[in-house]
Design goal:
The complex is a heterodimer.
Chain A (H helix, E strand, L loop, with lengths): L1 H15 L25 H6 L11 E9 L7 E11 L2 E11 L4 E14 L2 E14 L3 E15 L4 E8 L5 E2 L4 E2 L3 E11 L2 E10 L5 E11 L2 E8 L4 E10 L2 E8 L7 E9 L1
Antiparallel strand pairs in A: 1-2, 1-16, 2-3, 3-4, 4-5, 5-6, 6-7, 7-10, 8-9, 10-11, 11-12, 12-13, 13-14, 14-15, 15-16
Chain B lengths: L20 H11 L9 H8 L2 E2 L5 H5 L6 H13 L15 H10 E2 L7 E11 L3 E12 L3 E9 L9 E11 L2 E12 L28 E4 L9 E10 L2 E12 L2 E3 L2 E3 L2 H4 L12 E13 L4 E13 L9 E9 L3 E7 L5 E10 L3 E10 L8 H4 L8 E12 L2 E12 L8 E15 L2 E20 L2 E24 L6 E12 L3 E12 L3 E12 L9 E3 L4 E3 L6 E14 L2 E12 L4 E12 L1
Parallel strand pairs in B: 1-2
Antiparallel strand pairs in B: 3-4, 3-31, 4-5, 5-6, 6-7, 7-8, 7-9, 9-10, 10-13, 11-12, 13-14, 14-15, 15-16, 16-17, 17-18, 18-19, 19-20, 20-21, 21-22, 22-23, 23-24, 24-25, 25-26, 26-29, 27-28, 29-30, 30-31
Classes of the chains: A mainly beta, B mainly beta.
């Protein structure tokens, strides 16, 4: 039954997940917002590519909250911290998704390093806990590997494998989704960038997306993104004051209410 | 350093007539290659040991292949005038684009750091959108260590990393010249080869297949390679003598029946059938190889002891040995191999190579019961039947004409209920060099294969004789600007080809390829096919790395078109896209798309 409930929730999340998502087990639709190139974000390193941790210059703390489609059950809270050391960048994070009837908790440990002049590499280790009061709890560990390649001065290429160790959870060993992500980021000028990305969860058709970001002034960045399967549109705006950044995003859905997402970070 | 795909050079039209004859021969070899990838050994050394610009000497410049004398002189001059240059970009106007490709590959500007290598990543959406992933990483460290990692996932496979190939090659360790650990590949075939575990394949130009001294063990460079093993290899060379020790323990798909081991295709090959692969059979192998590199005599011998054990049932078979010996001179070679029951297979060849003519005579014989359980693990081609045959090949060039031909008579040796087949195969090819860059090719092949007696197929008893005749012809006109080396990607050319199978069908085939600035190239192909019979021969098989296409059987009439585009982001980083669409007159349309990144670091 637990696996059945898990499957139902997985299907629900898969069908309706918006562009913005959490660091939940089912990292569907993590989408364009994580493909950062302006700010260091350990949260993006968890959701998209652990190699993004290399953009942390000293110390960054970040927290966020989101509510999917206005549904109280599908809320996400997360907090991260990342620090730069001579041995690479390290990060630690916690996120919680869901509510009392179904709850996912994830503790993440990240490491990233500029391995070569053209290559950043990152690894993240996640401890997953699934809690369904009626049926008990399950634990497992997932491993992500990501790289970021600088193909040229203007073009960056991300490739990430999520849950590469093929983790399974619960007494029935329900496999957690494995996913391969790819993004090609083109930033011809410092204030404008675009990205095309692909996310492929095994067993499902791949999804593609496109995003644009524009830095109008040094304290404001605005972006727009689109993704297929299901079709979604997203808008985001980020404001910065010194090292303090606040970011708000909204994404539409063809059937359900829009998703709102807010994130606060400090440091660089 | 540039990855393999980014290594693509061709010669400018104005320089073609000044090419060294040695390179010209290589170009010809690539140009006439009907299919597959041809690696040119002269460039391989620069892959792992590129030259350093700031330390270039005139002697080193002289040894860079593919440059004209004029370009070498220019390079010497620039080296003197710009000793601190850090990129080839500033020389973009001074060298022809193709010469720059060569220089980018062979010469780097800064000594490598402690770690460098290249990375290749490919995705192919198939059918319902399920994606085939492929990644290959090669790392080099201080020229003593090379590490290779290959990952692959086929559509439908339940896990992200369906197959993981890895290996490391360490030089000068434990008194050994080379130590290999990980997935390795054995290559015992030497000369001409027609079947189990012996040499290369019979092809359109058999003389090219002679590659003496290819007894080797090396790291698997791809999970696509068949019969890889997991183990460790020690190799040491003293003077002319090389000794290699091998130990491997490999999980394979297969079954043990009585005292025999059955390895299905999925057990030793990496194919689409790997979806059904089960790793239940453990093969343990220990072996030794001895090689003597003399002049003019080369000798190699190998002996392996093998055991198989079923990991689930616990069944195993007694250890057995397999081995072989090879002797090779400039004009003669012989190779023998023995299976566990001492059944023998052998190939003997005589060769002649003159200024304008090459000739080969070969006799091969595989005992009726000759069987090597893991033939693919010893040789690379283990699918042909046990047969006896006589082969004669000839290549003759006179003036602007070049003739190539072979005749092969074969007879199956078998102890099965099915009567043996026998037959002949014949090829005649003519190339007319109309102008320095314009060629006309004609090739005709014919095969007669006859089976007499009684045999059972699909539970039906057949009596009498079955004669299979096959005649193929091809006529081609080609105008070229240049040729890409190393990966045999032909570039800057136009080709129009007409061919078909007598009684089966025919096709027209147009191709052209042009450079797009200096950052890449675009290649287009268009083919129209029409088959008279239901069992016709038209094909579309894509090899995105080499850009080659081969045909598979397809009946009816239709059009196939393909577009390949290569973009270079920067020195050593590139993107290749390939799109193929096949449409038939009955409305059935299929398409194929491949995206590949490669980057050197």
């Amino acid at each position: 039954m637990r696996s059945a409930l898990l499957a139902v929730i997985a299907c629900l999340v898969f069908l309706v997940y918006p562009l913005e998502a959490s660091a939940a087990f089912l990292r569907q639709g993590i989408g364009a917002h994580s493909i950062r190139w302006y700010h260091a974000s350990p949260g993006a390193a968890v959701r998209w590519n652990p190699a993004l941790l290399t953009s942390v210059q000293s110390l960054v703390a970040e927290c966020g909250h989101s509510r999917l489609f206005g549904l109280p059950l599908l809320t996400n809270q997360e907090a991260y911290i990342a620090v730069a050391t001579s041995a690479g960048r390290y990060g630690l994070g916690y996120s919680q998704f869901g509510g009392v009837p179904y709850r996912e908790q994830t503790v993440s440990l990240l490491w990233g390093k500029r391995l070569l002049p053209r290559c950043d590499i990152g690894v993240s280790l996640h401890g997953f806990q699934l809690s369904i009061p009626t049926y008990g709890r399950g634990h497992t560990i997932g491993l992500d590997i990501g790289t970021r390649w600088r193909l040229s001065g203007e073009v960056t290429w991300d490739i990430t494998y999520l849950n590469i160790n093929h983790p399974a959870i619960g007494q029935t060993d329900d496999p957690l989704p494995q996913q391969a992500n790819m993004a090609l980021i083109f930033r011809p000028v410092p204030f404008l960038g675009s990205a095309v990305y692909l996310m492929h969860e095994l067993g499902f058709a791949p999804r593609y997306g496109l995003m644009l970001r524009y830095r109008a002034v040094h304290w404001c960045i605005a972006g727009v993104s689109a993704q297929n399967a299901p079709g979604q549109l997203g808008l985001d705006v980020a404001l910065q004051w010194k090292t303090l950044r606040i970011r708000y995003e909204i994404s539409t859905h063809t059937v359900l209410a829009p998703t709102h997402w807010i994130r606060l970070s400090i440091g660089r | 350093m540039a990855g393999e795909l980014s290594v693509a050079f061709s010669r400018g039209a104005e320089d073609t007539h000044t090419l060294p004859s040695r390179l010209e021969e290589q170009l010809e070899r690539v140009e006439t290659e009907a299919q597959g990838i041809v690696l040119v050994n002269e460039f391989e050394q620069f892959h792992t040991r590129p030259l350093i610009y700031s330390k270039l000497t005139p002697e080193q410049i002289e040894n860079i292949p593919g440059l004209t004398e004029n370009e070498r002189n220019r390079l010497v001059k620039f080296r003197r005038e710009f000793p601190h240059a850090d990129s080839w970009d500033r020389f973009g106007d001074e060298f022809h684009a193709e010469a720059l490709e060569v220089l980018r590959y062979c010469v780097i500007f800064h000594r490598r750091t402690a770690l460098d290598g290249n990375f290749r990543w490919r995705m192919i959406p198939v059918g319902t959108g399920d994606i085939r992933w492929y990644g290959k990483t090669t790392l080099h460290s201080t020229e003593r260590l090379e590490v290779r990692l290959v990952t692959e996932r086929d559509p439908g496979e339940p896990v992200l990393i369906d197959l993981l190939g890895w290996g490391a090659e360490i030089r000068e360790l434990f008194g050994c010249d080379h130590v290999l650990v990980g997935r390795i590949r054995l290559r015992f075939g030497h000369g001409l080869a027609f079947g189990n575990s012996l040499g290369g394949r019979k092809g359109s130009d058999i003389i090219r297949s002679f590659r003496p001294g290819k007894t080797d063990i090396r790291l698997n460079s791809s999970t696509m390679e068949n019969a890889g093993m997991t183990g460790i290899v020690f190799r040491r060379t003293i003077s002319q003598h090389t000794v290699t020790l091998l130990g491997a323990s490999t999980l394979r798909d297969g079954e043990i029946t009585g005292e025999r081991v059955h390895l299905p295709t999925s057990g030793i090959h990496r194919t689409e059938r790997s979806l059904a692969r089960r790793k239940v059979l453990r093969e343990n192998r220990g072996g030794v190889i001895y090689q003597f590199a003399g002049n003019p005599v080369n000798i190699a011998a190998h002996l392996s002891c093998i055991t198989f054990r079923h990991t689930q049932t616990g069944r195993s078979i007694a250890p057995y040995g397999v081995g072989g010996v090879h002797i090779d001179t400039d004009w003669f070679s012989h190779e023998s191999a023995f299976d566990p029951n001492l059944n023998h297979a052998g190939v003997t060849t005589l060769r002649y190579s003159g200024n304008s003519m090459d000739a080969v005579v070969a006799y091969r014989r595989y005992d009726p019961l000759y069987e090597l359980q893991s033939a693919g693990g010893i040789g690379e081609f283990g699918s042909t039947g046990n047969e006896e045959g006589f082969y004669f090949g000839l290549k003759w060039q006179t003036g602007h004409l070049r003739f190539s031909a072979y005749y092969d008579h074969f007879r199956e040796l078998t102890d099965t209920e099915q009567p043996p087949y026998q037959g002949d195969e014949f090829l005649l090819g003519v190339r007319w060099k109309i102008r320095p860059k314009m060629y006309l090719h004609f090739r005709r092949t014919a095969e007669n294969k006859e089976t007499k007696g009684k045999w059972i197929r699909d539970d039906v008893l057949y009596t009498g004789s079955q004669l299979r005749e096959k005649v193929r012809y091809r006529c081609e006109w080609r105008y070229r600007w240049g040729v890409d080396e190393r990966v045999a990607i032909r570039r800057d050319w136009i080709r129009v080809q007409y061919g078909g199978d007598v009684g089966w069908g025919e096709q027209m085939y147009y191709q052209f390829r042009v450079p797009v600035r200096q950052s890449g190239w675009i290649h287009c192909g268009l083919s129209h096919y029409r088959n008279a019979g239901g069992d016709a021969a038209t094909y579309v098989v894509l090899s995105p790395a080499s850009g080659t296409m081969r045909f598979i059987r397809q009946s009816g009439e239709g059009i196939m078109c393909s577009v390949r585009w290569r973009y270079r982001f920067s020195e050593g980083a590139g993107l290749t896209c390939c799109w193929i669409r096949t449409g038939k007159t009955d409305g059935v349309i299929t398409w194929n798309f491949t995206l590949q990144f490669d980057i050197a670091f």
